[in-house]
Amino acid sequence: MGCCTGVIRVLPISITKSLRIFFSYGLTRFIVVGVGRYLIYLLLGFLFSFDSDAGTTSLGEVPRWSNLDHLQNTITREEFSHLLDTVYCPRPQWWSGWIRIGEEKVSIRKFAQRDDWYDLYFNKEAKAHGFSANSKSISPSLSGLTIALDPGHIGGDWSAMERRYFSLHGDQPVKEGDLALAVAQNLVPALEELGAIPMLVRKKNEPVTQNRPEHFHEDAKQWAQTVLGGDYNDTEKKNTLIRERQELLFY
Hints:
By secondary structure, the chain is an alpha+beta fold. Helices cover 30% and strands 15% of the residues. A hairpin with a 3-residue loop joins strand 4 and strand 5. The longest helix has 18 residues, at 176-193. The chain is extended, with a radius of gyration of 21 Å.
């Protein structure tokens, strides 16, 4: 998702459990969440799967808003606003064009520049920052639940290419991919103690695909030709764009 590109994601095999564990925007901050917080995570995932022209990203799918219907009346207005402002999207300018928070419901714009909204109704009875009565039927146990831990980024020697690398005053560099993997590895025994079956999508700071940047050379070349137009014969500019584009398509 657009605002969460630096996250470690947990891909639950089943969404009928109450507890969900995932990483929020940041390197090492994680939250054990209930159905209400999982809901807002889904909402933002839906929203930021679009680009500015309301088309899906290259790996995205058109959101099925009906998937949220069973979560109606499961989160209070206070809980929703608190999580939106302090955890998931602390800058109102990122979501103000997409989300309208009313007293009884929140309306989410389905497509950019269209007056087409999905209405999610709040739970009025549950206490703020708590779980609703509707979530009582959802088992809180993690026993037997298979959870795929997907540490974001690649890290290692690839961190500079993916722009998830920085160093101050000659110190050892901080690599987001390395940190993401380390935190995911620390989660494994904790999840096992809770009865879950954790699975790491990657176990080292290497790509999980056999492809490399050069595999995307032709796509990058066509893109550069479109972008540069009459300047395509500028060899230096062209080669730089092609290299950066094929790296972007790779990571």
